[in-house]
């Protein structure tokens, strides 16, 4: 999770229920083919959180916005907004709930429809601080939900970040939730009535006191079972010192995931706050590689890439900065390179690529914090600076003149995903301070500004004055 200043989006209950009719879907066999096809029509949909949304005069109550996929890609005219005041959704929109702070998608109950997991760390539910809500996919879209709170502690936050996977090989999807104090392993099955399996706090059972706000899942060890990693620091051993930074790897297996290793980070690394992570096979050797971004590490931010092995991520990460040969730009203290990372094949060559956000990047000497995104190409040698490309408001075809304003924060939240099914992932980049979302198509040479799409509160028909803060899914 990344902590930010929150702009306001003004939405009303009438608007929330006035979404255009959804495309007629054809339900698929369980589980869903895509982890983001919420209505089962075979096309990926885009869910994003707006934790600063004002709902029925409740400031920062939060909302989830869905843009529905079609044969031509995402269609902004088909969109739905879901809040805790929406029919069928548990709870009520309250000031500072921050519903939609983190978004994760998966077919949690294996019914053929992908679901959305949305956190609300500011929620107070019967005395429990923090919840996550499952918005259940169906032929009609996201019309029902069930919520989950801290399994043990009422006075502690819950679910700042989430990861989903079958971590115990029982065929049911499980959830891992981190909150800065605990690592909760919530066993499946999850049901629409709100039931789930046993909850286990993995942190105290594994010895270290891990302070983590970021968790990521994927298959690292090539055994077909989901694994996960948590990013943070060992409070008991090192307090707030940077030497306590690390990555703890939990290998999935029979009965429950087990922590098998800790990977320390090089000197200068800083994962105390604002880290991001993804798992993908960048060198196509069958093992999942762990890429993480740390906007406060080194000068201007750093990305670290741990190569996957049969026992988990390797112990010596490759460090990538704007000083790495081939990477465009140069490191500056306020760049925040690594604010978000996302993986996908942007050029159709079969290798996963990595997008790295630097929302603090300037354009020239006078336009500050406009933001930029760097895309690194995957290959036989993994991620390098070779053929890396940078995208910002000076990129041809990207809408929004670079001299319009400072503080756009382009690249603050990222997603690489193939919504058009052409074999090339689009680059989706949020510019939250400008209230924009940019969609750049993929080509044989990677994303391009030509034919890119700009979305804001006006063309999404949210409100004529709103500024929305898009948080893209993990």
Write the layout of secondary structure elements.
Elements: E1 9-11, H1 13-16, E2 46-50, E3 53-55, E4 63-70, E5 73-82, E6 103-106, E7 115-125, E8 128-136, E9 144-149, E10 161-165, E11 174-178, E12 183-186, E13 199-201, H2 202-205, E14 210-218, E15 227-234, H3 235-238, E16 245-251, E17 258-264, E18 275-280, E19 289-294, E20 302-306, E21 308-309, E22 312-313, E23 318-320, E24 341-344, E25 353-358, E26 372-376, E27 389-391, E28 413-417, E29 426-431, E30 436-440, E31 453-456
Structure notes:
It is a single chain. This protein has helices at 13-16, 202-205, 235-238; strands at residues 9-11, 46-50, 53-55, 63-70, 73-82, 103-106, 115-125, 128-136, 144-149, 161-165, 174-178, 183-186, 199-201, 210-218, 227-234, 245-251, 258-264, 275-280, 289-294, 302-306, 308-309, 312-313, 318-320, 341-344, 353-358, 372-376, 389-391, 413-417, 426-431, 436-440, 453-456. With 474 residues, it is mostly beta strands. It has a domain at 321-474: Methylamine Dehydrogenase, Chain H (7 Propeller). A four-stranded antiparallel sheet has the order 6-7-8-9, with no helix packed on it. Strands 10-11-12-13 form a four-stranded antiparallel sheet. Strands 14-15-16-17 form a four-stranded antiparallel sheet. The longest helix has 4 residues, at 13-16. Residues 1-28 have low confidence and may be disordered. Residues 1-29 form the signal peptide. Residues 303-344 are annotated as: Disordered. Keywords: Glycoprotein, Hydrolase, Integrin, Repeat, Signal. This is Integrin-like protein. InterPro entries: FG-GAP (IPR013517), Int_alpha_beta-p (IPR013519), Integrin_alpha_N (IPR028994).
